[in-house]
Write a structure and sequence with these properties.
The complex is a heterodimer of chains A (133) and B (560).
Chain A (H helix, E strand, L loop, with lengths): L4 H16 L3 H54 L2 H10 L26 H17 L1
Chain B lengths: L2 H13 L2 H14 L1 H12 E6 L6 E2 L5 E14 L8 H11 L3 H9 L4 E8 L1 H10 L4 E10 L7 H4 L1 E2 L5 E3 H5 L1 H4 L4 E7 L5 E8 L7 E2 L4 H18 L3 E7 L6 E7 L7 H4 L9 H11 L7 E3 L4 E5 L2 E4 L6 E3 H7 L2 H22 L26 H8 L8 H12 L3 E3 L11 E4 L3 H17 L12 E10 L6 E14 L6 E8 L7 H4 L1 H14 L16 E2 L14
Helix pairs in contact in B: 4-6, 10-19, 12-14, 12-17, 13-17, 14-15
The chains are: A mainly alpha (133), B alpha+beta (560).
Chain lengths: 133, 560
Amino acid sequence: MSYNGAAMRERLLEKLRQMANPSKKTLRVVLVSLAVLALAWEQIEATRLGYRVEASRRTVHALQGRIGAVQRQLQSDMSPAQLAFEARTRLGMQPAGPDCLRLLDGSPKPATSGSFLGRLFARTRRSLTASAT
Amino acid sequence: MDTRFRLALAASIALLPLLPLAYRLTYLQVFEHRSLDNRASGEFSRSAEEIVPRADVLDRNGKVLAQSIPVWTCFVDKRMMPTLTADAVRRLAPILKLSPSALTRRFRQGGRFAALQRDLTFEQSQAVAQAKIEGIGVSPSEQRFYPNGELARSVLGQVSMDGRGIAGIELSLDKRLTGKARKLKVIRDGSGRMIYRDIEKDASAPEPVQLTIDRSIQYFAEEALGEAGKQLHMQQGIAVVQDPSNGDILAMAVYPPNPLKNPIVQDTYEPGSTFKTFTAAAALDSGDVKTTDTFFCENGAYQIAPGTIIHDHEPVGTTDLAGILQYSSNIGAAKVSERLGPETFYRYARAFGFASKTGLPLPGETAGEIRPMSALTRVVLAASAYGYGVAVSPLQIVSAYSAVANGGILYQPRLLSDDPVVKIRRVASPDTIQKLVPMLENVVEKAATVARIPGYRVAGKTGTARRLDPLTKKYSQTSYNGSFAGFLPASRPRWTILVVISAPKGEYYGAQVAAPVFARIAKQLLALYAVAPDKPAAPLVTVTARAARPALAASARPIR
């Protein structure tokens, strides 16, 4: 059996050419394999995300429970009966009656117009007058 | 036999055992596919429901009156834990805050699943889960929570264990308050953990319901009633506060608090003398009586028909309409009604909203009753004129007083903030109201002086009526309803208040038992809203009256 190096090289090159230009059948197999892989990946990913969604749902519910407990405490503390009790016992406050109202005469007057110094002077003069009386 | 045939035969013989397998596979995959698929889905797939909390109920300022909070229930699956072990008791009892005996008792209740403890907090539920006791689990649920305790519970009502409304707003607005739960498609893995798959049905969270109730005013009313309850040991007390400018119900207080019943809308009572205001309004508005007209009040006893005598609680001689209201003369009111006649009286009573439901969104509202025109004989008409023989709800009385307060327009009482303000009708002319209001102010100034508030003009009318004994169907000799209805500040009314004290022990006159509660609520309202005084210095109305005899020991007996 004679060794034909040129022929061997030629066959090898042919094989490489075939690999570089795959047939339609090969392409189909590769595509189907990829599709199967994608589907499998999708399933795995869906399951992984499903676990995460469930965990998140549980966390949300747990946090809602905590918020509920805090809200419950807050609303109870802010209820009129509780506020009245705290005001009475802690601060010694009494419910106000209409006789506690102090109504001011007339409408509020605008600040003295003019420059900053003018307004400051007017304010100082008012306070001095008040302390003198 | 050639080789090919022999090979084929050998292959057929080799494959023959696979035939039954192929048949079975085909049978299972094709014919039994649906039922097996369902079974498999049942094993692994689940439809989980995500709880949507019941909507909050808010007051007119957005303060929470009722809300739902997530809680957990600890349960046991007796198929997994047929007997409660000592170890489980030792570990669970402190978490669930139950004694070992109570825990064992609860374990024995129910069928396969038994609830060991409800309304667990988040921390408790976590502790149970971390204990990892086989057969013990926690499931989420929700609890209806009323942060203000018993405040406004007669309005709010109650929900059942399964979260459905059974009374009050919780019942009447149950559909609106309940959301639609989100349904999730999940599967379970080998260890029983859930894996989210899809949303089967999305949730619809309900919107909060805002009432016209003011939490602060409600508190004032309940506090005042509670104080009165301690002093008077009454069977029942109610207080209603309404905004006369639009019919908004600001407070509905009931003593003792009862979430399952609201007597303000569900019960009727005979209003007694508080009804005289409407007799007077009808008399003035129809033109049958003028402010200057006088009536002889028979010095305290008037035989209206053979065997039927009307009594006043104090003898009154001749007086005008203002005097009839001031002295609360039954005889005077009867004589006014005689001048009105049954037709006019009935027409005005209906116009003021009596014997008609107000349409408030609370369950079991009563329409009350006024005798039909054909039944208004002389005696019945006279009794109706001073508030006997008519059955009205406290809500009707307060709404009718609001119509007097706002210048003569009857508004539909409003409890939901998003409901429109509805003017029902004009019940009296502004001129009539202008004449009537000073008369009611005069009542407060001269008779029900407890209801006076220094610096403010207060208009109102007292009422004292014997209660019907449900057993004998006769008027009780010892049990009374004392009431006071009024509004303030009379110059520009902002609040109409009705107080009814039922069966108090000791004092029972409306001026003695109900007027102080009215004044207490009114004072707090004036202070809370910093209302400027409106009282003039000059006298408001002059009453023409001649007292006949010194006061007799008379009672408030209506008719004999």
